[in-house]
Amino acid sequence: MSLYVKGSVPLQHFALQFDLTLPNKGITAIVGPSGSGKTTLLEVIAGLRKTSAVKIRFGKQQWQSASNFMGLAERRMGLVLQDPMLFPHLTVADNLRYGWQRAQQHFLSWDEVIQRCGVAELLEQKPPQLSGGQQQRVAFARALLAQPQVLLLDEPFSALDEATRQHFVAYLREVSAQHGLPVLWVSHQLTDIAEVSDYIVLLSRGKITSSGALVEQLRHEPLRSMLAMAVMATPLPGLDEDASKRLRIYARDVSISLQPVSHSSVRNQLWSTIHAVHESSHDAECLVELEYHGQYFFALISNAAWQQLALSVGQRVVAHIKSAALHHPVSQQLENTC
Ligand SMILES: Nc1ncnc2c1ncn2[C@@H]1O[C@H](COP(=O)(O)OP(=O)(O)OP(=O)(O)O)[C@@H](O)[C@H]1O
């Protein structure tokens, strides 16, 4: 089962054109410059733009075609747009009950969502009394409480402070993984995306320039030089790490030697193979792509070092990764910050 979207939507300066099959689990990030069509694509998938030139299928459900159109509620989507769109005349509790009462089955509990989204204190207030960040928290809670079969998010955490935003990103990942809930997520925060997405769609002036699994996309342009990082599944043999689900390793935190170094503060020394060498965003440096037990990561080194060590593709080298540089997905300990 997957989400299939195909079509064309004329916009002011160009047409948004798409032909995508997206995974029906995990987090898919939609990324691109401002004005490239990300929000429009999300609105099309949500059924907010009724156009006959669009086909959408979710598993066996035909959501939209030339002869068929299912509305947002029938698509059973949770939707959080940049504007939280809460009902201003209803209390927060009534806003939240709106989707909850219409849900066919409840896989997410009321109490858990209220607590994790930090909205218990807000239940009797009305949306105009809330700050932008509080409204976003309520909108996110409302989308979850509707027990959606797909969650669509457009910059849902933009008004939150950093710690609270990280908490919500972690909660989003947890909910998606635990309940197999597919998420489509538009965000400008590339680091968030690298941290929690599984799949990525890149848009430029209405065209999909690239799409695929994040791990693969990070190995290729444009993300390779934009982020210069890798996401690796753990546990990895020899790595000074507990079994977390994945690690982010930035190229700038990795160095290379020809032999293990015994007197070094760097404890993670991995015999790896040089798979390729790429240009970096700096003229004097290169991105060395290393392979370790079938996974790939980068080291950012100077061109002078590459020549001095007489490195070449296919060579076995020791990669040194600072322990402090092994970044886990955002911590769950931020739970009480909101
Ligand atoms: N209803 C519309 N009719 C015609 N053009 C539109 C319409 N809505 C948006 N556009 C244009 O379509 C383009 C894409 O807009 P969209 O909001 O989808 O981009 P975006 O990538 O989400 O941008 P941002 O990151 O700034 O939110 C923009 O150039 C915008 O001016």
From TrEMBL:
Protein name: Molybdenum ABC transporter ATP-binding protein
Residue stretches making up the ABC transporter domain: 1-230
Keyword Magnesium part of the UniProt annotation: no
Any Gene Ontology biological process: molybdate ion transport
Superkingdom of the source species: Bacteria
Residues annotated as domain Mop: 263-330
Annotated keywords: ATP-binding, Cell membrane, Membrane, Molybdenum, Nucleotide-binding, Translocase, Transport
MF term (GO), any: ATP binding
Pfam families cross-referenced by the UniProt entry: ABC_tran, TOBE
Entries under InterPro entries matching the protein: AAA+_ATPase, ABC_transporter-like_ATP-bd, ABC_transporter-like_CS, Mo/tungstate-bd_C_term_dom, Molybdenum_import_ModC, Mop_domain, P-loop_NTPase, Transp-assoc_OB_typ1
